[in-house]
Specification:
Blueprint lengths: L26 H11 L6 E3 H6 L5 H13 L3 E7 L5 E8 L36 E3 L5 H24 L1 H7 L4 H15 L5 E4 L2 E4 H8 L4 H12 L8 H27 L10
Antiparallel strand pairs: 1-4, 2-3, 5-6
Helix pairs in contact: 1-3, 4-6, 5-6, 8-9
Length: about 270
Amino acid sequence: MAVFRVERIKDYTVMSNHHLRNKNLSLKAKGLLSQMLSLPDDWDYTLKGLAAINKESVDAIRTAIWELEDTGYVVRTRVRDERGCLRGCDYYVYEYPQASSSGSDGSAESVPPMLEPLASDSAVQENPIQLNKEIQNKEKQNTDLILSESETVRTKVRDNIELDLLCRNQPESAPVMQEIYELVVETIQLRSPVLRLGNNLFPMALVRERLLQLTSEHIRFVLDGLRNLHTDVKNLKKYLLTMLFNAPVTLNGRTMLDVRKSVGGGSRPMLA
């Protein structure tokens, strides 16, 4: 029996599209903000650290940070120690622009990250370019949302195809049916706008609609097709996904043909 190994997509991030659609942001700033939003809440990093995981230099990263600060996606606050001495800045990263803070004269406070003024006692600043990320519990909210959506999809697909009943009735095929189930759930949750099946690109909305139409009958139909497969398939996962995508249409068309044959009508439509 063929063994199906599902290539799962993991470690993805749910974020707002606001900055991606903001025409006032450069592509570099959009990319850097997306990267920072994808990092854990407790990840403490520096401009040098950001440059280490990107092709751009520290200066290029700093320029992008300034742009994000000007547009409100990054907010910088001064940090002082217990003696009141300025020790550096904290940077807060947001998915939506924040209102700029103003000084007593009403003008927005702007201090270059590398040129913060020294405290009155001329104490040396510590970590002047330290970034500390706070995204309003974004990571927890994203995780909860993903888990909630995933559980809903898994339950719906399991009920639609009657997975438990299928596995009880065909225990020898249970591992394959479990892999099929996981593949369907994984595909429905893909975030891409289109999906390539064979040589064609299909809108993900259509793919999800088809996969959510699958029933136990469709799964048995696909299993029969796999058992009768006598050719080598280079990408078995893609082949299986194509079969699942076509199953609702193919099986329904075959059923109508069988009905016509059973009444002796051949391909001639029945008249009322």
